[in-house]
Design brief:
31% helix; nine-stranded antiparallel beta sheet; 3 domains; D-amino Acid Aminotransferase, Chain A, domain 1; alpha+beta
């Protein structure tokens, strides 16, 4: 029986865990949080941090695993690559995975190889950051170099706010390093979706329009909608440039979550190429829209199985995920969904309960749940996603009121 070590046992990691169990594989989960749900489905679980490369290596060696999977987790992706490389298991080059997981190294790579990249520089010291900020035109983005899911990001419009933005970014950086970069003026939607490579060839790519909630600060990513409104010629160009990036870095197989912008000249600016599947049910939405199962492909690829069956398919119908989130912090009273939206729901996973403490949305750590939705038309999809607060009502009692009344 094949043994698979999954790095992460959170809600987001459940799809590949369930797939592996359905296939009859022996599932081992590794996560320092003992109450994460994946542990309860696994054949065997271990409370080991997914970012502790040597501890995970020792575990994988002792258990004689056949594959290591880091699904929808940037912090765990380098660990999975490291363990696979040391043990001779299927995987991608550790140095290349680590490069993609670090914003500072990725920006340097883009510049070195002639790809578009925003002006950016990374800092351990806030004094050095302040000096460099004076050379830029605001607004700029302040980000942790090694985090994803919008965590730790500030769109800085006033230099006086740098200290707060820098310290906020540090809260989400294991490296304790912060990158400051210029904002690119985009045309149309930002693009965010998953792709899949097998044997060095980009076998599958499907671009999605990324939607943000402007009521959050910074704007919070709430949805990826299919089909995209991106010009197909630019979509083809982006796929070709992406394949060249991945080939240059020596990638062979696996899923990647890709974010990019397009400027007024039709130039492509890659923001992130995560060496793992996207979170927030992106692979699940793609499966509904196309029938292409990137969860299966990810697990099969980690086992070294043939994934030549993965092929590009255009979406059928109008699909989106949606990240349920709150605009205020406090104690959750209820989440209600309109009848119109309920009629269009294909999947719903709410991860909080009435009475739980919730925060206002700033990053993926503030997600309250995820939906998969099928709309009747492109126009309806864009209209509803732009006005989703009319369809999802989240009632929160402020903690301050609770304290006073209690």
């Amino acid at each position: 029986m094949k043994k698979i070590l999954f790095l992460g046992a959170a809600q987001a990691q459940l799809p590949p865990i369930h797939y592996a169990l359905d296939q009859g594989y022996y599932v081992i989960t590794c996560d320092y949080l003992p109450d994460n749900p994946g542990h309860f489905f696994a054949d065997e679980s271990h409370e080991v941090s997914t970012t502790d490369k040597e501890a995970v290596l020792e575990l994988a060696r002792r258990l004689e695993v056949d594959a290591v999977v880091a699904y929808a987790s940037d912090p765990a992706a380098p660990t999975a690559a490291y363990v696979a490389e040391v043990l001779g298991l299927p995987g991608n080059p550790y140095d290349s995975v680590e490069l993609l997981a670090r914003k500072d190294k990725f920006r340097e790579f883009l510049v070195e190889h002639g790809f578009n990249a925003p002006r950016s520089c990374s800092f351990y010291s806030i004094d050095d950051a302040r000096a460099w900020l004076a050379t830029l035109q605001l607004p700029v983005f302040v980000k942790p170099v090694d985090s994803s899911g919008n965590k730790g990001i500030t769109c800085l419009e006033n230099p006086a706010d740098l200290d707060d933005a820098f310290l906020y970014a540090l809260q989400f950086s294991r490296e304790q390093k912060v990158v400051i970069e210029e904002r690119i003026d985009q045309v149309g939607f930002q693009i965010d979706s998953d792709v899949f490579m097998f044997n060095g060839e980009l076998r599958f790519w499907l671009w999605a329009d990324a939607h943000f909630d402007p009521l959050c600060s910074p704007p919070f990513p709430i949805a990826n909608s299919y089909p995209t409104t991106l010009d197909p010629r630019i979509g083809e160009k982006a796929a070709a440039e992406l394949e060249r990036i991945l080939a240059t870095l020596g990638f062979r197989s696996g899923a990647f979550n890709v974010e990019f912008l397009v400027d007024a000249q039709g130039e492509i600016w890659f923001l992130e190429i995560g060496p793992r599947n996207g979170g927030d049910f992106i692979p699940d939405t793609i499966l509904q829209a196309t029938g292409v199962d990137l969860v299966k492909a990810t697990v099969d690829s980690a086992l070294g199985l043939d994934c030549s069956w993965v092929k590009r398919v255009e979406p059928r119908g109008f699909w989106s995920n949606y990240v349920v989130h709150s605009l205020e912090a406090g104690i959750l009273e209820s989440i209600s969904i309109s009848e119109t939206l309920r009629e269009r729901l294909v999947c719903k996973a709410i991860t909080v309960h009435d009475g739980d403490e919730v925060d206002c949305a700033r990053g993926s750590h503030n997600t309250l749940g995820v939906l998969v939705i099928r709309f009747k038309s492109l126009e309806e999809m864009h209209s509803m996603l732009a006005n989703m607060h009319d369809h999802i009502t989240i009632r929160v009692t402020s903690q301050q009121k609770v304290a006073v009344n209690g």
